[in-house]
Amino acid sequence: MNIAFLGLGNMGSGIAHCLLKAGHTLRVWNRTPDKMAPFAAAGAVTCNKPAEAARNSPLVISMLMDDKSIQSVFGGADGVIAHMAPNAIHCCATTISPECADWLAQQHGAHGSRYVSGPVLGRPDAAAAGTLLQFLAGDASGIEDLRPVCKAFANLFVPLPGPARAANLQKLCTNFFIVSLVEVFAECYTFAEKTGASTEVLAQFFQRSFAHPGLQGYARRMKEHNAEGQGGFSMRGGLKDVGLMLDAARNAGCPLEIASLVEGKMHTAIDSGLAEADWSAIQQITRTSAGLEPR
Q1: Residue 221: its pLDDT value, please?
Q2: Neighbour-count burial for 54-78, b at 16+ CB within 10 Å, e otherwise
Q3: Whole-model pTM?
Q4: Which one is the CATH code of 169-289: 1.10.600.10, 3.40.50.720, 1.10.1040.10, 3.40.50.150?
């Protein structure tokens, strides 16, 4: 299929490479042009503007940063939606707010194109390996048409009933679970180190307790104090997601105290120069609060 792919960051680049390997033709756009060079070398067509990539493509997949970037790229007379073909599909794989999903669904409905929220769960290494989990909600025919394409980068699909926002709310719930565990790992390792308990025994316990490779990875990396941003989920991106969790929870009248705690630590981490570190670097803030040196 001829696919327009917008956004070639840590996650987007892995997904786009999987699509190329599966034999799809890509027209790519990225705000930072030099990230398009490897895709041009692999046979993709590079575009100077997102609307140029989307024009006449039956499918647009976006992996941009946040609500603001989505609305700036897709809205308005010069935006992507205005240049999409009738009945074309837009699949937004980004973690966005349910309100932004509502906006996209309304804009596509008015234009005559189809919208599917398709946020993915997994780290960049899973994106590159084609082993992401993907939630899908929105236009029913669009979901069915997407399945053969998305299997190039996601080996598990969870279609959800209801409007497109259902997928985004599901993603926020799962991300809240993960970031809560990240904070628990941080506190457990700090507590063990501070009191003289074995972090090695603790790490082995975590590995046995959690079967998912992503959680096992966090347990291992946090024991080793490995929070490098390359190939990880950045603190800046994590703060955006935690903010979306808290907004959705406030709208539902449901306080999330752990999420509020994590948000504060993320702000402190960013102020300390850790904006591009993996979000598990909140462990450094926990260590500092306990009087331990950052590692």
Answers
A1: 87
A2: bbebebbbbbbbbbebbbebbeeee
A3: 0.86
A4: 1.10.1040.10
